[in-house]
Amino acid sequence: MESAEAETSDSRSEEDGAVPGSGFPPPEQPVAAAATMEDCLAKKMEITISEAEKRTGRNAVNMQETYTAYLIETRAVESQSEGQCAPVDSLWRRYSEFELLRNYLSVTYPHIVVPPLPEKRADFVWHKLSADNMDPDFVERRRIGLENFLLRVASHPVLCQDKIFYSFLTQESGWKEMVNETGFQLKADSRLKALNATFRVKNPDKRFTELKHYSDELQSVISHLLRVRARVADRLYGVYKVHGNYGRVFSEWSAIEKEMGDGLQSAGHHMDVYAASIDDILEEEEHYADQLKEYLFYAEALRAVCRKHELMQYDLEMAAQDLTSKKQQCEELATGTVRTFSLKGMTSKLFGQETPEQREAKIKVLEEQIQEGEEQLKSKNLEGRDFVKSAWADIERFKEQKNHDLKEALISYAVMQISMCKKGIQVWTNAKECFSKM
Amino acid sequence: MSGGAAGAPKPLPSSGPKSLREMPHPLATSSSEEMGPALTPSPDLLQPRSIADKDLSLPNGTPVDTSSPASSSSLLNRLQLDDDLDGETRDLFVTVDDPKKHVCTMETYITYRVTTKTTRAEFDLPEYSVRRRYQDFDWLRNKLEESQPTHLIPPLPEKFVVKGVVDRFSEEFVETRRKALDKFLKRITDHPVLSFNEHFNVFLTAKDLNTYKKQGMALLSKMGESVKYVTGGYKLRSRPLEFAAIGEYLDTFSLKLGTIDRIAQRIIKEQLEYLVELREYGPVYSTWGGLEVELAEPLEGVSACIGNCCTALEELSEDMTEDFLPVLREYILYSDSMKNVLKKRDQVQAEYEAKLEAVALKKEDRPKVPTDVEKCQDRVECFNADLKADMERWQNNKRQDFRQLLMGMADKNIQYYEKCLTAWESIIPLLQDKPETK
């Protein structure tokens, strides 16, 4: 892992350097190992999104639009002097800026599984929750999701050191220009190229192929799970709510009963409680769904790394192919034999042999190209190896994080279920008590 | 034992005093005098003997009046026994079990074994075991209704079954029906008057019920006439307040029960739909587990846990379908029977009022009220007494049955949640079991 980190930081050494801002000391040397968990940004700075606000403004084409802005608050943590509290810095960002940041990160760090953003539109939700973007519940859940994204980036050993990320947190104006100046968009791969690579790579790395396969399956299984969970929640909601009708009818019935009346009346009250309890239960469960959703989107991030590897591999193979054909040409010219039937061979036969001088010159050019190509291939090979190394390191990190997070999520889910069962037992025990007095 | 019209009252006088003979229970006799006035109007206590003497000369020859003394007085007996000595004086035990399917060329039907154990002198043997089919129960109920018109006859489960919707020969259906038939006979057995009914005796003991049924045909036609005679054209002036109250009570009661029945069915439907989703939900975790290495076990655990919850839910819905719904249905039918008896009572009163009116018109004969009218008045009073006694018995049974039923419902739900709770609690250690915890 250490070696991989060394290489990654090496490759982006020009981005390191003094970072403005108080509580954040610049990395000591450019070639230093990437931040370990102890000195990553998350440990030096408290990051929260404390507020979300609906705003109306004009967009680029001067159209009225409504959007939600999020207040990011940061505060330096001084580990030495605990008594002192650093002042809180705050600034507003909107979702599209988060998107820009993430795009920038994923282009700039192709070998890293970049944490995903929360969903743009509510999806896979239990029916009672609104799917409206401006719905307060949705905005609140997205606020939590965005905060989580910032914390994920801030605690990532490599991403946390990014200058653009740092200014995203601390510099309200001019940030967009700064991002665009990095020219990251030029580095972005075109879709067509990526598609090409997928189909034409001859010697794919087995590990990456498997990983890609895994991320596909992960994505499909989690989305299936989320879909079914939403339906399960819907049905459970129905079961509880229908019990609420007992509340009404018991109370109506109790009016005509003498000895049974009181018991029925209070049992009816417990049925009302039972029916109402499901709202909180399912709202809490949405949090679990959000945790799963993050990994649904992580699967996409994982696949992006695989795709970038494919592209790299494709480039490498193309370069190697080019070199081989040049070498062959050169050999043909030198020996004067045409091994394969080619147009060139035909023309030379038809229009007579080139002069030796011409041939010499051609060979010379080709030899130069071959040398250049060889160097290029060498560097691409090196680059590829570096990529694989650092990508794999990050994937390992990701896997560990994933196992840890999902276990935690499952535990909290189980705890939720346990509390639901306990609530159910409580309500029915109370109701039984009332019935027994009838 | 002949079921002829003339013979009809014959066995009944013996059944009346019989239950009176039960009265010299030390506790019953001593306390009945204290409780008496509070529980039943004093005329009822005085009437029995005088009416028992008169009844043989009643024109209709119905056993109406014969049974009333027994019922109203032994009600007192019962009411006190219910509290402390329930069961001790029981001398007749009937159970319905062992359903068997009979396939003949003409029809396919189910018979049930009816086992009787008794110490009563009316029975030649202490134990009987006969096989009866639904038709026979139906016959018994009709006979009881004819011969004891002033009494509330417990309902039979519905005869009509929509073909195709319910499989008449399915195990669940037969079992549900068996329980209902068992309940039907038990309710008769527990009744101080009905349990001494001659037809009931025959039903429990006769080897060949069919021959007896044919004998009874003649009687049936006669009885039909008498019922018609009563029904003919009289309008009731005013229902006494207490019976009007009973009528109103029954209307509301059956309305509320109908609602509860619908709610219960809806809950079962929602639960089954929830179950369908849950059955899909669990295996998704299993599929996911197949993709993972470290998470395989926890995910499998969650899957198995959801499977356990499915089983628990299935049991809950089954219990609700098999135990809860039939009792509701029985009470809905029961209140219908009750309404019928109320109607008959109204008819008897109407008859009396009409006669009284006729007498009032012939004012000259005033000093001498015809015996016919007196008899009519007696009939009304006996009917009222029987009905009140039955209604009170019914109320008491109802309270106990619903107490048990609703407590059972609460218990089943508690058990369901407890099973789920155990399942979820058991996977917590599985989820926490990770050596590399930080």
Automatic annotation (TrEMBL), chain A:
One example of a Gene Ontology biological process annotation: protein transport
UniProt-listed PROSITE patterns: PX (PS50195)
Entry superkingdom: Eukaryota
Name this protein carries in UniProt: Sorting nexin-4
Keyword set, alphabetical order: Protein transport, Transport
Span of domain PX: 48-176
Pfam family membership, one: PX
Chain segments carrying region Disordered: 1-32
Family designation: Belongs to the sorting nexin family.
CDD domains attached to this UniProt entry: BAR_SNX4, PX_SNX4
Automatic annotation (TrEMBL), chain B:
Disordered, as annotated region: 1-76
Gene3D superfamilies, A to Z: Arfaptin homology (AH) domain/BAR domain, Phox-like domain
Limits of the PX domain: 90-211
Regions of compositional bias (Low complexity) in chain numbering: 7-18, 67-76
Top-rank taxon: Eukaryota
CC per GO annotation: cytoplasm
Assigned keywords, A-Z: Protein transport, Transport
InterPro entries per record: AH/BAR_dom_sf, BAR_dom, PX_dom, PX_dom_sf, SNX30_BAR
PROSITE patterns named among the record's database cross-references: PX (PS50195)
Record-level GO BP terms: protein transport
Coiled-coil ranges per UniProt: none
Family: Belongs to the sorting nexin family.
Name assigned to this protein: Sorting nexin-30
